[in-house]
Amino acid sequence: MSESVFVTVPEHVAIIMDGNGRWAKQRGLPRTMGHRKGVEAVRETVRAAGAAGIKYLTLFAFSSENWRRPEAEVSDLLGLLKAFIRRDLAELHRQNVRIKVIGDRHSLRSDILGLLLEAEETTKDNTSLTLVIAFNYGSRDEIARAVVSLARDVEAGRLRAQDITPALINARLDTAGIPDPDLIIRTSGEERLSNFLLWQAAYSEFIFLPEYWPDFSPEIFRSAIETFASRDRRFGGLSSQAAAVGT
Predict the structure, then answer these.
(1) Residues placed in the known binding site
(2) What is the full DSSP assignment across 24-50?
(3) Whether the predicted pLDDT of 245 surpasses 70
(4) DSSP state of 185
(5) What's the pTM value of the predicted model, to 2 decimals?
């Protein structure tokens, strides 16, 4: 993968891939066609992230609330995930991409879980881009599972309640070991997180784009990163300009 051409490249970009259904509706197509076109956008985005020098790319693939959708649509989404892994795993492995899956695994079908575990195991030693797939993921559920894990340790006497810190909570989240996202992008014009990385997004920059996910291109991605690079991130402190004036 080529080196980044950006002055300031975010280490971790997370994307809420929204608008597949509306993209299809605009064109008089079934929703399934929007999801299939969206998979093509995923492939292009993974390549663009690697070329830009981004180290972590998190994609909100399937939320814990998506099970409420019509059964036929859920079945198609699961089929697309399976097809993506079967078709693209070898290529991602060749590109030195590591795959990490976050989300609740306990209720997943064995065929889906098996594929996700295979993808993680096959690519675990890769050192280029880490592709984080948020599947059956909901941030409130993730935080609740982390709290339950800590509560069990307190109950068993392995941990004192007063010793619980943000760092300890962070270590029990699905994203343990992964840096918080520097930039969160959402397509389709919606401007909300929709239960995505609520804890991790504390100091993330946000970019909301009008384009539907199937229209998300490497050019749009590069433009978003350039916008990110122009922002002054303060993390609760002074801006770089104000700090310079005060010195």
Answers:
(1) 18-23, 31, 35, 63-65, 67, 69, 186, 192-194, 205
(2) HHHTT--HHHHHHHHHHHHHHHHHHHH
(3) no
(4) E
(5) 0.90
